[in-house]
C-alpha cells in the first residue's frame, strides 16, 4: 500500500466537482482540494497547472453529457431540442458551476467540437452562417437562463404578501411547492416556442 494516496486526473476532477457542488464555485481552492484528497497542494500540480485549467477540465467532463448527435440526421429541429434538453440536464446536475460555464466554450476542445457540429448542422440545413451563429447563441441564452435561476421558487409561501397588493398574483404563494415541475414545463414551453418560431422563419424564406 502506498503511504500517500495515488492521484489521477480523474480523481482530482471528481474531488474538485464534489467541492464545487458542496461549497460553491468560490469554495474551491487548490489547498482545499489537496486536503480533500489527503495530499499536499504541491502534489496536484503534477496533474493540473492552475485552478482555471482544472475548472475547464471539470467543465469538459460535465458537458460531455450534452447530446448534439441529433444534428447528424439533417433535422435541425431535432438537433436543437435534444441538445437543449441534455444541456439543461447536465447543468441542473451541477448548478454551482454554471456561472463558470456561462462564459462560453473558451479553449475547451470538446466544447468547440460540439459547437462546430451544431453550427455545421444548421448551415447544412440551409441556415446562413450568421443565422446559425445567432441560433446557437440563442439556444445558450435559453439553456443558461433556465439553469441560473428558478422563477417559481423565487416566490414567498406567505399568501398575505400577494393577496391584497397583487390581486393577479393571489396564487403565487403556491409556486414554490411545484417549482421543479413548473420550471421544467416552462423550459419546454420556451424551447417549443423557440423551435416553432425558427421553423416559421424558415418557411417564410427569412433564412439568408
Automatic annotation (TrEMBL):
Residues 29-48 bind DNA. The keyword Repressor applies. It comes from the Bacteria. InterPro entries: DNA-bd_HTH_TetR-type_CS, Homeodomain-like_sf, HTH-type_TetR-like_transc_reg, HTH_TetR, Repressor_TetR_C, Tet_transcr_reg_TetR, Tet_transcr_reg_TetR-rel_C_sf. Pfam families: TetR_C_1, TetR_N. Residues 6-66 form the HTH tetR-type domain. PROSITE patterns: HTH_TETR_1, HTH_TETR_2. PANTHER family: HTH-TYPE TRANSCRIPTIONAL REGULATOR RUTR, TRANSCRIPTIONAL REGULATORY PROTEIN. This is AcrR family transcriptional regulator. It comes from Saccharothrix longispora.
